Amino acid sequence: MNEKTREEVERWIMGDENGSEMLKRVCSVRPFILPPPLHRVPLRVGNVLELVGPSPSAKTQILIQTAITCILPKHWNGIHYGGFDHLVLFIDLDSRFDIMRFSQLLIHRIHEPYGEAAGDYDKSLYDLCMTRFLYVRCSDSFQFLQTLKTLNWRLDKEKEVHGVSVHLLMIDSIGTFHWMDRASMFLSLKENNRKKLFLQSVSEAVVQDIKKLLQVHPMLVIATKSVIFWNKHSSASIEVKGSFMKNNWEERSLRNVTRNYQHFQYREYMPSVWQSFVTHRILIRSSDDHSATSNCQNSSFFLLEWLLPKLSFSDTIVVKDAGVFVDS
């Protein structure tokens, strides 16, 4: 923690304010109005938004599109881009991030205000935005925890270099290491004093580290989570990461089912400490019926539904080469 940040924290700890002053301060922190398709509910720093859906369901594409809005400036050379003008930290846990796709969508957004007749894109703006996108890849839970514990120092350094702070912390995908950690619970240990890697303890450490980080670096957290849907009326087995869970196991786990969309269900597998940490949740699933009646070629359709808070309607989103759009 640098000297300036330490002084700000000390003033916050020692400070005192009445109700009117507190209300004025809280109201001055404007909520996030994220770009479509995440525009339905305003979010604030400290919120944790979880995007839940099968793989693939455009979750990473939505992260990329939102990240580009964050790193773009509001105005550049007299052109309005409507960006947040801040940094983004993207933690890749499943090693599926496509930097070429990110670059393609960023160039499209830079080109967009000029129309189709525009020539070369503004390379200086492109370079600025790319330096504002901070990328970290982790291969297991230990690396993920090590990364979280060093982020405070890194974010301070990045703020000094760029002059702006990190606005969004993105985690793709939070459940990636769950099954590896689950398997480690049953492995015998050598004769030493090391603790077993229990699912609950890992999740508790992750949540505590993120909470500590948000106290010093207020950010909005957006995490994706892959799930598998199954038909509750079907007698078929459920395949998860190469293992088959038979119907007798399914019947015992129905109490853990957190969502029932018509005749489809998914089982919540993340520990309760993470579930209670999430403040907002979106469910995304494929929309094959809509795809069959659409004339759009080379496009994929999905249904996006807010579960937390619960909204009475859902959006149909379409994934094209130019990005993710709400289908009107």
From TrEMBL:
<dbReference type="InterPro" id="IPR020588">
    <property type="entry name" value="RecA_ATP-bd"/>
</dbReference>
<feature type="domain" description="RecA family profile 1">
    <location>
        <begin position="23"/>
        <end position="227"/>
    </location>
</feature>
<dbReference type="GO" id="GO:0005524">
    <property type="term" value="F:ATP binding"/>
</dbReference>
<protein>
    <submittedName>
        <fullName>DNA repair protein XRCC2 homolog</fullName>
    </submittedName>
</protein>
<dbReference type="GO" id="GO:0140664">
    <property type="term" value="F:ATP-dependent DNA damage sensor activity"/>
</dbReference>
<dbReference type="InterPro" id="IPR027417">
    <property type="entry name" value="P-loop_NTPase"/>
</dbReference>
<dbReference type="GO" id="GO:0005657">
    <property type="term" value="C:replication fork"/>
</dbReference>
<dbReference type="GO" id="GO:0033063">
    <property type="term" value="C:Rad51B-Rad51C-Rad51D-XRCC2 complex"/>
</dbReference>
<dbReference type="GO" id="GO:0003677">
    <property type="term" value="F:DNA binding"/>
</dbReference>
<dbReference type="GO" id="GO:0000724">
    <property type="term" value="P:double-strand break repair via homologous recombination"/>
</dbReference>
<dbReference type="InterPro" id="IPR030547">
    <property type="entry name" value="XRCC2"/>
</dbReference>
